[in-house]
């Protein structure tokens, strides 16, 4: 499966929340990795691995707190998302090599990794595969759960998406591309924008209080649309990866410590799946909050303090 060429029209309209939001690295296999930076350029480095489906722009929400906590947040697009080259046949354990290449490119001897939502499995893969001396911390915020915990925790919608991605990927790509195009049109109408604004008002997000509701809506849309700049190929690919074996055993993740923060009311990744995973990693610390998948981010100050303490 190859990604479609990136439409120049869309590339030229990417909203930048940082003058460093569109940086590029050529990987050893000649693929392009696009990444953004937020916060303090000389601050403590933290690599943020975005959700599913999403893009590097997701980390723009952390700009205010990164500046307050003297953090340099580096957020790469995974293959096929945003402006990173699609990588046919990739597996979750392949990604830590990209992370290490980025860290080497930026001359980072040590760095922390935080995976949000669908980026969680990739953060754990980093804990599994990267040299311990390179990692100053590994964290997962509202991460995806392993389906091996039990199918009773997986919604019908997610099961159908996984089946479609596995057996009819072309059809699913057509459906997703159509949905994204419909959303592009819908957000130009009053009812759609009012619904989005109402949803945002219910969420406790890191940027709330520093951005207007219109700016927060625009940020959400930019992050979402950026994920599909190359089409939905990466989303279909990752729907398979996240719903099948992740390519490593949790018992073999020996890094000390993998920290997980999760909401007990998370319906995207039920807490039972996370407890199953955390209980199998020898050095994992699971912190549970009375929150949903989205509202757990209101604890971001505590989370960052535990992952990257202020010196």
Automatic annotation (TrEMBL):
It comes from the Eukaryota. Coiled coil: none annotated. InterPro entries: AB_hydrolase_1, AB_hydrolase_fold. Residues 45-133 form the AB hydrolase-1 domain. PANTHER family: AB HYDROLASE-1 DOMAIN-CONTAINING PROTEIN, HYDROLASE, ALPHA/BETA FOLD FAMILY PROTEIN, EXPRESSED-RELATED. This is AB hydrolase-1 domain-containing protein.
């Amino acid at each position: 499966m190859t990604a479609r060429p990136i439409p120049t029209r869309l590339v030229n309209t990417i909203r930048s929340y940082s003058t460093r939001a569109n940086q590029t690295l050529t990987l050893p296999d000649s693929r392009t990795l696009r990444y953004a930076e937020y916060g303090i350029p000389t601050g403590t480095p933290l690599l943020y691995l975005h959700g599913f489906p999403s893009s590097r722009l997701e980390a723009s929400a952390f700009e205010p707190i990164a500046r307050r906590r003297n953090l340099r947040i580096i957020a790469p697009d995974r293959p096929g998302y945003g402006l990173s080259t699609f990588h046919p046949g990739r597996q979750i354990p392949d990604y830590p090599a990209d992370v290490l290449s980025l860290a080497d490119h930026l001359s980072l001897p040590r760095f922390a990794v935080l995976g949000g939502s669908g980026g969680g499995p990739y953060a754990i893969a980093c804990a599994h595969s990267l040299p311990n001396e390179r990692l100053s911390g590994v964290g997962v915020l509202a991460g995806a759960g392993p389906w091996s915990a039990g199918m009773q925790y997986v919604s019908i919608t997610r099961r159908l998406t996984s089946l479609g991605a596995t057996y009819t990927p072309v059809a699913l790509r057509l459906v997703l591309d159509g949905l994204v195009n419909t959303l592009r049109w819908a957000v130009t109408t009053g009812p759609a924008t009012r619904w989005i604004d109402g949803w945002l008002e219910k969420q406790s997000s890191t940027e709330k209080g520093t951005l207007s509701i219109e700016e927060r809506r625009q940020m959400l849309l930019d992050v979402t649309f950026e994920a599909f700049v190359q089409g939905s190929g990466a989303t279909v690919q990752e729907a398979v990866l996240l719903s099948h074996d992740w390519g490593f055993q949790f018992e073999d993740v020996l890094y000390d410590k993998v920290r997980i923060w999760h909401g007990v009311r998370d319906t995207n990744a039920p807490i039972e799946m996370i407890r199953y995973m955390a209980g199998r990693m020898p050095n994992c610390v699971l912190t549970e909050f009375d929150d949903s998948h989205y509202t757990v981010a209101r604890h971001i100050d505590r989370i960052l303090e535990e992952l990257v303490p202020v010196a």
